[in-house]
Amino acid sequence: MPSLGASFGRGAATLPEWDIANADCILVMGSNMAENHPIAFRFALQAKERGATLIHVDPRFTRTSALCDIYAPVRPGSDIAFLGGIIHYILERDLWFKDYVLAYTNISTIIDERFQDADEGDGFFSGWNEESRSYKYDSWQYQGEIVPSSLAEHYVNTTESFSEKTKRMEKGPPPRDPTLQHPHCVYQIMRRHYARYTPEMVERTTGCPRDVFLKIAEELTRNSGRERTGAICYAVGWTHHTTGVQMIRAAAIIQGLLGNVGRPGGGILALRGHSSIQGSTDIPTLYNMLPTYLPQPHAYKPHKTLKDYIDSERTPTGWWHNFPKYAVSLCRAWYGDNGSEANGWGFDWLPRIVGDHSQLPMTLAIRDGVIRGLFLLGQNPAVGGHNAALVQRGLAELDWLVVRDTGETETASFWYKGRPVREGEIRPQDIKTEVFLMPASLAAEKSGTLTNTHRLLQWHDKVVSGPGDSRSETWFIFHLGRRLKRLYATSIDPKDRAIQALTWDYPVEGEEEEPSAEAILKEMNGYSWQERRQIGSFRDLKDDGSTACGAWLYCGVFPEEDKNLARARRADPPAGPGTHLGWGWAWPANRRNMYNRASADPDGRPWSERKRYIAWDAAQRQWTGPDVVDFDPDKPPDYQPDWAKDPEGMEALGGDCPFIMIADGKLSLFTPSGLKDAPLPTHYEPVESPIQNPFYTQQHSPTAKIWQRPDNPLAAPEDPRFPYALTTYRLTEHHAGGTPTRSVPVTAELQPEGFAEISPELAKLYGIANLDWVTVSTPRGEIAVKALVTERVRPFRLDRRTVHEVGLVWHFGWQGYATGEVANILTSIVGDPNTSIHEGKALVCNLQRGRRGEGS
Amino acid sequence: MKLKRSIGERVAGFVRDWSLPRQLRGEDGSREAAASTMSRGLRPRLEQADTIGTSICPYCAVGCAQLVYAKDGQVIHVEGDPRSPINEGTLCPKGAATLDLMTSPERLTKILYRAPHSDRWEERPLLWAMDRIAFLAKRTRDESFVKTLPDGTPVNHTLALASLGGATLDNEENYLIKKLFGGGLGMVWIENQARV
Which of residues 25-44 of B touch A (CB under 8 A)? Predict the structure, then answer.
């Protein structure tokens, strides 16, 4: 989550789920929390029972809305206009938490005077390069300093050499004007930027009536300050946009201005959708990172050798100054004694990326025959992948496909049941793909850790064996690796050195020779290379090859032999502190509420007794509280770096810098680096939108990733063929692509088929009655579903016109007991410029009464 | 010893055993007054379990803790772990169906193989499939591996192999995937559901 990373320093939920109960105000937006994260929503209801105000802002009225105090409808994709309106309200009414914001954020920092706002550029910030369709970030930097990003990719693409220029940060603190009068300070830039986000503009753009908007703004600001805190909960309703990262950024700015980050009951809770989606971001089966937020080496960046990599990615100030220790220890864990100083501890063997290798371009590379062999490990892209017909056609281009899952997925059966086959476009005998469908084990059939949405690692036991030939992925990968190592054992080709050098000697257990999950977790935690002794803290990792560590942020989960803290099951008693430090283990260092230095004022005192959390104990000369402090534990609040001594790393951060992963220790209201689309969130329309952008001539984000090609056609803005706003969503009873619920009798029975929600007004236009068949179409294709005519979906009344909405459930496919047409036939391959996440939450469509032609 | 009881004795026995009159007399219906011969014979199903393990719900990322009960190697019950500060014993409709997921008749038990251009699945042995997949992975990698770009920049990668999935898997599984596929084979198309 680059937005949270760029704003606060780490790309993850800032607070534990249970801390939501301590909030005085909760905004749920981009999430239908009651239905999709029902157990976490209990904490919101507990807060409500204690008097908190609950607010839901969403394109549809859902069960979350029904349980909240205030519901505001917003047109799909208009969230930044709404949130920008809140920022405008806070700034213009002077309702920001001044003591917090002046001390802990970059509000007073002076930005390069060449910076030009998107208002002046009619939708473009300064630095735009039309040819490359991207920004140069020079003019977004602090005056006279380039600021390295806190994201995995620290390197900043500017015209001047990064490593040379960032070193200036060591020479002194960033230029600031605490009076906020400087025209180029962040405060003045933000005031100018958000001046247009008036309640009238919010109403025109989002369709939310201004009195409802004002009521929400009032509640959010009322619950801010020394005595009160508020939390924001979001999910894929924010990430699934070409402006998704900036939506979350806008929330981060609001939480910064209201002083909510790092304090009990305050912060941002990212509600993620899969059992280890946080874990698989930390331990990334993602192309652009190595474990726990180290950048994957890139061929077009100065990453040729380990030294180049370290020089360009190590930040001079802040925590990431420790970067070399983590990079070297990772190489040690992977290549062992085959690595040496001469080959950068094996760094030279790591593959280099050359561009965007994420799922959307992967889909096209499969279709275009670039990718010839594909492993699908618990993912079902024939249902979950965007432009699903293109996905299915692509699978037929593969030489071979391995599907590992618990049942026969749509993806595994594409060659005889896929839509192009059923509709006669291709025949099975014409499909060359060799397909392996392998049964996989579920959580209680294997041991290991899952990392939940608030960074909590919890161990699960193997209780039974999976049926028949079911195996875990550790088994599959370990034994595949063994075979490959054998096949490559005698090779003298340098290209095979990496696989030969890889450490791969995990102990195995039982007849099936299951590799020990604890042994793998111990390697991720880290150990001393010579003595093979477990390491208790990432503070003890070294950059000289004397430590091995597969995932530095997970260091501490297995601190000693036979001490697996992910197994810990000691919750606090009702009268206890409620941080539950003895239940599971949360990265980093078992912290539950990140940035918790900010729960005390600049002098180290609690902001209030009511919101006491971490505080400076002057007698003990250390920070104390019910949580693990997110700071140097003995750095006094009045510590200031001595710039004459060229301080580095944490020495360069003062005692009032709670955001230690950021180079200047301050929450980034304005993000000079790390994000590719904007330093301040601004409203663009979705790539496909029923209206013109009310803010700029520039319609959609100029940096949005758009792969326009004949098999991925897009609707133009205000395309009369597709007049309705389309949004997709999920149900409580089904999970994502549906494999683990549509094939289960009880959940399939609860929600047996797909449907589209439409308003009575829209239904009337077409003479559609409840449960009639309707055909929904986009430029990519059409599907038939049942209509659910309901007032939960309301037409949006914008400036001069009305926009109707279609809400479409997307879980369904042709396998299992609960079936329906694949909704992602309708969606397109376009992506956020930072994350390459698709835009499944805001598109346009057309509607017809009746079921599309047979063969469906 | 009388083998058969008279009707009178049976009625008297029934009335003695019947819990309703006791409760109507004012005894506490949530205690012994509710007991009967049948209820005294009831045993908790979970008593049969020979193994209990802690688990984590396999669906969303809230991280609800579960207790998994098994007997003779077969799972017989899954419930929310009351000790968990996250779910305090509760589960949502999906989580409550974990037992049904584990025991679904739709679950695969065998390796299914579809040969090129074939119109059917065939069962194959697991180890045969592992050998075949290792062979194919090596062949595709060897045919596509790129050591350097034309300008000499090292890349050490293959663009012909891809992997998708991971968000439903354990950290240990993701770690091995990234280590073998990335660090060992030089794959760069490694992705999961974090972007969908």
Answer: none
